[in-house]
Amino acid sequence: MTWNFATSRIGHDGAGTLTLEVCHHRADYGNTFGGVFWLNSPPTSDLDVFCPACTADRGLSVSGTWGAPARLACVCGHSWTPRLPGLTPEQVLRNLVRLALSPQGPAMPLWRMRADHDTEPPSPLHQAVRPYLAEAGHALNRREWAFTEHEGRAAADILTRAGRMPHRRTGEPGAEEADDAAHLAWLHDNLHVLEGHALTAQGRLGTLLSNCATALRPAAALTMDDLEPGPTWSSLPPVLDDALRALGAVHVVLTAGATGDVDY
Ligand SMILES: [Zn+2]
């Protein structure tokens, strides 16, 4: 998906941390000036991002496709890919988008920043696992299926090794990228455990785990370049939120089967 938005000023600390100023009143957003109010103050830092052709460091616009390098443009129309210390050009785009969306920052509306609104939504993995989990849940509820000792051990191992999901530190500037990376690593670790048991578990649990692991395979291929921000309850990127919910639903059924507490 493609992003495109105007800024007032972009700074960096020379060590991979970006700052972003967007001076506008929300009500003025989208007026003839593109909603960006010019700052009168002179450049305050050598580390402001500026145009390599005309040295403009105000009113730069940011564009790019998620997962690809950022493109910056000044009002003269010069356009370049920023090479900043401590950041790949892809991280520059991701971090600027996150900063612009941040409720503690400019809180720019998503629909203003997205250049293409009709691209397909993330594939809903929680829907992909639902039929298998619903069937298993009903069987457990109706006492048609009670975990064997072997199944109970496999489920307990999956749940024990899952532990707790990383804590989400909202509101800290620049923390989103690290948080997303931690959640993604947790997701990948747990999918790996699930896939391992899907190969070795027998009987009904083996079939359930195989079906869920297959349905969740797209989640195993996710990278940071797929984790585009969007509105979710968890404030995690929609693709990651969906994958974690799908995995969480698998864990709920495994918990029910392993504990015998099936009246959830
Ligand atoms: Zn320029």
Number of strands: 6
Number of domain modules: 2
Q: What's the overall geometry?
A: elongated
How many angstroms does the end-to-end distance come to? Answer: 39 Å
The helix fraction, in percent, is 40-55%
Overall SS class: alpha+beta
Uncertain segments are: 25-40
Tell me the radius of gyration: 23 Å
- In which order are the strands of the major sheet placed? 1-4-5-6
The count of helical stretches stands at 8
Query: How can the largest sheet be summarized?
Result: 4 strands, antiparallel
Bound molecules: zinc ion
In round numbers, the mean pLDDT is 85
Oligomer: single chain
The topology string of helices and strands comes to EEEEEEHHHHHHHH
Residue fraction in strands: 5-15%
Outline the secondary-structure elements:
Layout: E1 2-6, E2 9-12, E3 18-21, E4 61-65, E5 71-73, E6 79-80, H1 89-101, H2 110-113, H3 125-141, H4 149-162, H5 175-200, H6 203-215, H7 217-220, H8 238-259
Antiparallel strand pairs: 1-4, 2-3, 4-5, 5-6
The structure holds zinc ion.
Zinc ion binds at residues 51, 53-54, 56, 74, 76, 78.
Question: Can you walk through the features of this model?
Answer:
This protein is of the alpha+beta class. The protein folds into two domains: 112 residues, no CATH class; 135 residues, no CATH class. It is built from eight helices and six strands, in the order E-E-E-E-E-E-H-H-H-H-H-H-H-H. The strands form two sheets. A four-stranded antiparallel beta sheet has the order 1-4-5-6, covered by helices on one side. A two-stranded antiparallel ribbon has the order 2-3. A hairpin with a 5-residue loop joins strand 5 and strand 6. About 6% of the residues have low confidence. The structure holds zinc ion.
